[in-house]
Description:
Blueprint: E1 14-17, H1 23-33, E2 39-42, H2 44-50, H3 52-60, E3 65-71, H4 75-87, E4 92-96, H5 101-112, E5 119-123, H6 131-136, H7 143-156, E6 161-163, H8 169-176, E7 181-184, H9 203-208, E8 213-216, H10 218-221, H11 226-239
Helix pairs in contact: 4-5, 7-8
The protein binds cytidine-5'-monophosphate (C5P).
The site of cytidine-5'-monophosphate has 15 residues, from strand 8.
Amino acid sequence: MTRSTDFSDPARRIIVALDVSGREELLQLIRTLRGTVGMFKVGKQLFTALGPEALALIKKEGGEVFLDLKFHDIPNTVAGAVRAACRHGVAMLTVHASGGRAMLEAAVQAAREMVSAPLVIGATVLTSLGAQDLELIGLAGPPEQAVLRLGGLAIEAGLDGLVASARELTALRAEFGKQPFLVTPGIRPKGAAAHDQQRVATPLKAVSDGADFLVIGRPITRADDPLAAVEAIVDELVEAE
Ligand code: C5P
């Protein structure tokens, strides 16, 4: 997959995390933000609540879908899940890099067999896991080391990019160069509440350090005026250009 994504409009970098469960709330957010932001992220909360209807609604309303279900299973099952996601017309999806090389290759192959292949993005180490947590699940060593190792596995298997926290961006760009898409959550515009995120970065800092896409949820979805919140983020990004 070549890097054809057009970021001349910085708003296209924004992926809005739709962590909601209700159809009405979902529709309101899509209708407010479609045509402005790059994609809408459907994660386990929304997908478990509404199922593929959530994907159909976003597509019908003219939005692009990032299906963030972090597939992690045997290769045959993940390949089947990727094909099913492709049939829903998703633009991007996630798999867990720790699923191993055969699973990652099966995911990439399944996507590429489809008429319009989505970007396949690898999640490496969940940012909620610290060094002690990693040791308990048998991944001793600094989290950054595990991120680089799993990131390397994902890139070698042919994935299009990685999910990366802001603190890993510089190391990942140094290791893997410009090619892989880096998708970064934990973004907080200037002055926004951190909520439960521990290590946050501003949109500007994340893009300067190498992020392509910014995953932003509550600072947009819980704002009194979600469109104004997006516009403020874009102003922040444009200032730097
Ligand atoms: O509301 P907020 O901006 O914190 O939402 C961030 C989104 O990114 C959530 O959907 C969350 O599940 C996701 N995410 C994250 N950290 C990761 C991976 C995904 O916050 N490491």
